DNA sequence: GGTTTCATGATACGACCGTATCAGAAAAGT
DNA sequence: ACTTTTCTGATACGGTCGTATCATGAAACC
């Protein structure tokens, strides 16, 4: 037998090369040859670990989702304990908004996959349980804030959570599109959060 | 000289074929040959009216923007006169949200161009004065509503307008992505509008 | 009414695409 | 030591891409 290699690591390495190309130059340029070159690997190797290009695309998208999920989780975990519901909401949403290099990279890469997913929905038939999950997390935090008197009681948590997520996604698009810088987007997001949560001692005293 | 032909009409016809392909199968399939076939025209003709593919893509995007702008204008013009600011805001936003076949077509097509524009920003160096324009329109309407006592006075019109636009774009993405249907998106949008405008006789009495 | 000019068609060229094939190196098991 | 299995490399094939070339139709102008 040959030297045993960590297949998963190899797959991540190659998929990472594809994600890098997708982020920087778009999926149009993510050909097998370009991916192999970016991973400093032969084309045959890419074929070996991913039998077909669709498989490579799908796996890469999976790794990307994993990475974004990890970032959100890390952000939430890094909050002081116990974090206020607003901290959780704000932390989650700013983790998705392209403000720092990592989030720019992640959202740019996601954007590269967006139209592909729209055009070929079969590719992700079994994917994306995420958005609904995030929405539920946010709604749950909003409810907790209401019970603690930290958010206005008449808010509908579900509709508000969905709105916040859509707002953040829309802001992210405009930032990536260059119509707004990250600072302006963050200002808009914070403004809307301020309208949901009642002011407390710890937060942005005027 | 040959029979004189309306060049602009021909260009629109060909660009329309590209837009149709982009919407239905994505820009990946919008090759010169496919566009020509969809327009029932020879490849040479496509080359004749658009010297290069980039030119075709750029022109098509322009026509698309024109079409969306016309839809918004038509929607606003169709409002009773004088329309309330809320009607204008709501009409503008629902014109953008993919709720009926035409708006689905427009937003799907836009989405197809999205990642291309992100990857090749040079293509649209001179384009897209639109978003800022819409934002200003919404902000202006919000201010008018405030002066008429129809919207809460403490709102920041600029930030709120930007938020509404981003919210609508985000909702549109989720509808196109199939995570939500148009009805749910409209419900979320209406909920947020309800939180901005003070209830009046004409609107959704409980 | 010939000629110029605009408009259109058929076809070819080189490049790159995804994938398949052929072959070989390298390490574990016996 | 030798076989067997896992891994890697070079190269070829058919297809499609964007674009260029060559050729021709048909109408307006002198």
Automatic annotation (TrEMBL), chains A, B:
Keyword terms, alphabetized: DNA-binding, Repressor, Transcription, Transcription regulation
DNA-binding region ranges: 31-50
Keyword flag Calcium: no
Top-rank taxon, per record: Bacteria
One Gene Ontology term of the molecular function aspect: transcription cis-regulatory region binding
InterPro entries in alphabetical order: BetI_C, Homeodomain-like_sf, HTH-type_TetR-like_transc_reg, HTH_TetR, Tet_transcr_reg_TetR-rel_C_sf
Domain HTH tetR-type: 8-68
Residue ranges crossing the lipid bilayer per the database entry: none
A Pfam family annotated for this UniProt entry: TetR_N
UniProt keyword annotation of Repressor present: yes
Name the record gives this protein: Transcriptional regulator, TetR family
Source organism of this protein record: Micromonospora matsumotoense
Upper lineage: Bacteria, Bacillati, Actinomycetota, Actinomycetes, Micromonosporales
